[in-house]
Amino acid sequence: MRRITKPPPESRDCMAEKRTPQASRAGRPWDLVVVVLATLLAAAMVFVPFFSGSPIQVVFVLPLLVFLPGYAFVSALYVRRAAVREANGEEVIPRLARGLDGPARVVLSVLASVILVSATALAVNFTPFGVRRVPMVVAVTALTLAFAVAAVARRSSVPRRERFTPAVPSAVAGGWSFRGDSTVGTALNVVLAASLFLALATTAYALAAPPSPQGDSFTEFYVLSENESGELVANDYPRDLTVGEPTQLTAAVANHEGQSQEYTVVVLQQRVRTNGSGNDTEVVASEELRRLNASVESGETAYLNHSVTPAASGEDVRLTYLLYRGDAPADPTAEDAYRTLRLYVDVSEGSA
């Protein structure tokens, strides 16, 4: 029979007194509350025009791209703290059931964020919205909040003393280091810290660097049509039009100028004539069909749904779309337009 030695009453009282405050705080997901608040604040910064392109916006949005989604994801996977030892050296949590603490959790959060944000961008690219600021922020925000809720639910399913809850004092006082004083552990700390710093610095520079005045400031301009399933596509344009009958099209204007911009789109119906070799085209008649106006924020895309009603019939006819920054002149031409698109069509008189 083994002999069990109980600690003196004074020692037990002292131990209980020391554990009580920690036990009362154990298991509270304050870190996930911070993640949720920081995520919502970053999303709000994106939607407030006053902060657009400012350093303050970068400071708040940066964690949403390189840390918050990964931390919520890792927290949902690893809900237990690493093995805890009591004063007698006995492990409270079995080795196979222990979780992550310290730098491993932080570095995994950064790596997971890079993967999650990249995967989100790939998925958003196949939607009608494309990889733009607002769809990306909405998608990453929703993903982060979903993982945070899952992490809270999973933590509540394990015993309170086993739940992972970062301790602020220990983190500040050196809790973010691997246990042990070995040379390998020190080297790993240095490598992890350097990797984290480089990842954050690179992303911060990419976000904060102002766009180059040459080559990086531009506007995308394209025409879309609606396919059989109702999606907007850049093909299958209507080629056979009828005089007096409207045809639905959509002009898309994507602003990458670095600032809010006013645009004017002019739609012309032109009858053209080509020379014998087919290399030169001459406009023999031109008629303005309509004008469209749009105010587009930087990084946003305006979709201008409109109808085109041909005014005259002919086979050598094209619809010419002219894009202007600001107002268009009274007599717009392709020579003075910022962007030009042409869609060749055949226009018939229709049935009498």
From TrEMBL:
> Any coiled-coil ranges, and where?
none
Q: Which portions of the chain have biased composition (kind: Basic and acidic residues)?
A: 9-20
Q: Which InterPro entries match?
A: DUF1616, UCP018671
- Which UniProt keywords are listed? Membrane, Transmembrane, Transmembrane helix
UniProt superkingdom: Archaea
| Residue intervals of the DUF1616 domain | 35-346
* Region Disordered, residue ranges: 1-22
Q: Where are the transmembrane segments?
A: 32-52, 58-79, 106-128, 134-153, 187-208
Q: What is this protein called?
A: DUF1616 domain-containing protein
Species assigned in the record: Halopelagius longus
